[in-house]
């Protein structure tokens, strides 16, 4: 119950890592504002009115103002912001259009920036030593062919996390990042064909593809007081994918 009496905002909360994070925070006592462009799956009511569902496209220009207005009217403060919302567009580099590029950046980077800014202002105004946790990807550091806009946003997000951490540290606000590897989510499902799964299992040292709950555990750690002295960090949750330079199937003499 690390989050009893805490208020948390989770974006991308309808499914996948966002859903698992919101459910974990609820289970540990938080009041959760679950944000997504739409809520298509039923929620289990934790009781005590601790769940708020907010339909919001994080890429919309008015999203940050809408979220801030909602929080200022319904919450005494904000303790945690988990930026999980993200989209993936698959196309060869030579075929990516300006529309494709703009949409991925709007969701994964621009919207995240301004939502974080709005929530951080509330934390500062209420003198709350809050926690902001951003969700990157192993593909910020490992190439993913046919996903240039996505990888660009994740690399940018990690750099932005460090700058946010530096600027918000004087207010007692920490900003960290989780870098998931292969994870079973609604976004990854279409590209995780049988062949892709076999290749991943051969590449990942721990030999597993993560359920969203494993990534949510890392997010909640960084959002908790257990990580009070950690800021500007990026935590790999990838089964060893990014660090492994071995050659699968090769024996060294």
TrEMBL record:
It comes from the Bacteria. The keyword Oxidoreductase applies. Gene3D superfamilies: NAD(P)-binding Rossmann-like Domain (3.40.50.720). It holds the Pfam family adh_short_C2. Keywords: Oxidoreductase. Belongs to the short-chain dehydrogenases/reductases (SDR) family. This is SDR family oxidoreductase. It comes from Catenulispora yoronensis.
């Amino acid at each position: 119950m690390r989050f009893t009496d805490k208020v948390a905002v989770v974006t991308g909360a309808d499914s996948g890592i966002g859903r698992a994070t919101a459910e974990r925070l609820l289970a540990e006592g938080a009041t959760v504002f679950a944000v997504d462009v739409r809520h298509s799956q039923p929620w289990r009511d934790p009781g005590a009115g601790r769940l708020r569902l907010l339909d919001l496209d994080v890429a919309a220009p008015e999203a940050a103002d809408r979220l801030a207005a909602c929080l200022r009217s319904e919450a005494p403060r904000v303790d945690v912001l988990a930026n999980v919302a993200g989209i993936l567009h698959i196309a060869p580099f030579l075929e990516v259009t300006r529309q494709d590029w703009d949409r991925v950046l709007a969701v994964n980077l621009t919207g995240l920036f301004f939502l974080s800014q709005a929530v951080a202002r509330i934390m500062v105004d209420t003198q709350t030593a809050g926690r902001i946790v951003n969700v990157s990807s192993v593909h910020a550091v490992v190439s993913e062919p046919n996903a240039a806009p996505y990888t660009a946003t994740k690399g940018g997000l990690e750099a932005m996390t460090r700058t946010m951490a530096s600027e918000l540290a004087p207010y007692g606000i920490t900003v960290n990042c989780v870098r998931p590897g292969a994870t079973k989510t609604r976004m990854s499902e279409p590209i995780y064909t049988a062949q892709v799964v076999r290749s991943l299992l051969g590449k990942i040292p721990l030999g597993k593809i993560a359920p969203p709950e494993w990534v949510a555990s890392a997010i909640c750690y960084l959002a908790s007081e257990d990580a009070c002295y950690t800021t500007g960090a990026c935590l790999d949750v990838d089964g060893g994918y990014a660090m492994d330079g071995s050659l699968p199937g090769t024996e060294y003499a």
